[in-house]
Amino acid sequence: MNRTLLKTALHLAAAGVPVLPLRAGKVPFGNCPACAQNACGGRPNMKTPGPCSCPQPCHGWAAASTDPHTLNSSAWASAWRHAATVAYHPGGAGVTVVDLDDPAAIQWARATLPATRTVTTTRGEHWIYQGTMPSANAVRPGVDIKSLMQYARWLGPGTGATTALPDAARTLAVKDPAPARRAPQSLTAPLRGHGGACPHRTPAYLDRGIAMGVQRITEARSAVHATVYRTFLAVLSTHGRCGCLTDAHVARLFTAAQAKGETVRHCTDAWTNARTALGM
After folding, report:
1. What is the pLDDT along the chain (280 residues), one digit of tens a residue?
2. How far is the C-alpha of 263 from the C-alpha of 114, rounded, in Å?
3. Which of 2, 280, 22 minimizes the C-alpha distance to 150?
4. Would you tell me how many other CB atoms lie within 10 Å of the CB of residue 49?
5. CA-to-CA dists, residue 216 to 139, 192, 259, angstroms
6. Chain segment 133-186, per-residue pLDDT in tens
7. DSSP 8-state class, residue 218
8. Phi-psi region for residue 271, left (φ > 0), alpha (ψ -120 to 50) or beta?
9. For the purposes of burial, counting CB atoms within 10 Å of the CB of 176, is it exposed (0-12), middle (13-18) or buried (19 or more)?
10. How far apart are CA 110 and CA 61, in angstroms?
11. Which of 97, 102, 105, 146 has the fewest CB neighbours in a 10 Å radius?
């Protein structure tokens, strides 16, 4: 068991911050055997827990806890033994993290948002505000919002005083009205297509589109989050309603994104956000 990580988790929990262990790659632990294939009713993207009483940390952000008995339990021992870092649920702690992934994003924040507590990350900074809001990825180049129904890595207390969540941050997650639907929607899950023949494009056109999307992601040198989101948006806007996308097509895009450092969770959220933006 990683006693250092557990000690950090217990310290945060005592301060009222819900915590959970993360595997290497900033990924939460997968569903436990009792919840395999989401038998408990939890959603595949782990945004909400199922109606089970499973004590293990297998539902992403929803597993975050402030209960020291839970964190110290034998059910969590394996997770702590294989954990790479500690994460926390910002919304559960009453805060919002503005995740700035590159120098350009930091420069934008300094010119747009009020100063607040700042934590240095591997690629940029976390700006932490008091107050909660819906989470959203790629709200602008290099900027993610982590608050409700999301987790963030614990990278230390940071510096500066935490200030109130500004309206300028809240408006980042406000989406434009969805466009009028041309036909009944066919995609019902983030990673599942119907595999039917595309009625308005040839299969070769779809393959070229996927290849171009993979190339666009692979060649990204900055703002990877935004590039992945925009690529998903472009693919879905062309083929998302006709049922021609299959799991194999989506897997190619996810694989390219993960090769650029994106996690499965980030990919899934970007795909979901793109579908939502298109009214799917």
Report:
1. 578 999 999 999 999 999 999 998 888 887 777 777 667 765 544 445 556 667 788 888 888 999 999 999 988 998 999 999 999 999 999 999 999 999 999 999 999 999 999 999 999 999 999 999 888 888 999 999 999 889 999 999 999 999 999 988 988 877 544 444 433 333 334 444 444 555 555 667 777 788 888 988 888 877 788 888 888 888 887 777 777 777 788 888 988 888 888 888 778 888 888 888 777 7
2. 29
3. 22
4. 18
5. 19, 22, 13
6. 888 888 999 999 999 889 999 999 999 999 999 988 988 877 544 444 433 333
7. H
8. alpha
9. exposed
10. 29
11. 102
Place of tokens 């993207």: 45
Q: Which residue has the tokens 């589109």?
A: 209
Q: Give the CA angle between residues 135, 136, 138 to the nearest 5°.
A: 150
- Residue 129, C-beta contacts closer than 8 angstroms, at least 6 positions apart: 95, 96, 98, 116, 162, 163, 164, 165, 166, 169
According to DSSP, residue 149 is labeled B
Buried/exposed 220-251: b ≥16 CB within 10 Å, e otherwise: beebbbbbbbbbbbebbebbbbbbbbeeebbe
Amino acid at 119: V
Contact 259, 218 (CB under 8 A): yes
